[in-house]
Design brief:
alpha+beta, 3-stranded antiparallel β-sheet, two-stranded antiparallel ribbon, minor pseudopilin epsh fold, 5 strands, 273 residues, Helix Hairpins
Amino acid sequence: MNDQPTSMNRREVLGTLGAVAGLASIATIPGLANGAQNNLPTSPVPGAPSAVKWPFSPESMGFDAAKGVFSLPPLPYAPEALEPHIDKATMEIHHGRHHQAYVNGLNKALAEIAKLREPGADAAMHRHWMRELAFNAAGHANHVLFWNCMHAPKDKGGKGGGQPEGKLAEAITQSFGSFEAFSAQFRSTASTVEGNGWAWLVINHAMGNRLMVMASERQQDLFAWGTTPILGVDVWEHAYYLKYQNKRADYVAAFMNVVNWPTVAAWHAMAAH
């Protein structure tokens, strides 16, 4: 039996991903949970930067439809681009080893789940491989968003840092009272995630596309259905320990200096329309 899910086509693979409870970053995108791809906002809406792609599109996620597997997308900038806020060594290890491990785990889980559909397969293994799928698929999706919501700081000629403008700025003020209030809540949430996890700025569709700050433990635990993430910071120790050791709050503060607000604003426009 081939250990790669080559028998799974594009619809089957992404439909399987969307069915995983807790994989909110993929499953809540309109049209993806049921495997229908035509509704994915893979191109910007009017007013969004033309080069910005939806982070959870098959292209952004490195999905090869012919083979039915995912590959690791390259960083959208050089690994040293975020210095001095996030160092080159951390970026190389984080992307090339940790993110690669999630991609490998995702492909392995998809292959094993495909085997479980064969006659005589051990149904008891479904629970294990669905857990592996949820963890690794969420890890992959989270990191695709993470790399793309950062950019070189403005004092180095990049787009990172500062504050958002336009409709995203208005939405943040409406939802939190001010950018400063949002920033304080986001940094506090990220700094106090118990153990390993993430902090997110999400669109809550059930609340009229209101913005919320949320946290998730590990990759996907505690996340909520009906929300779409547009900004995320990884607070697993591997994301910051080489430079910041146990000073997670310092790392989170540094992260704010490389947030790519034009891209986050484009994602907000795509998901909140």
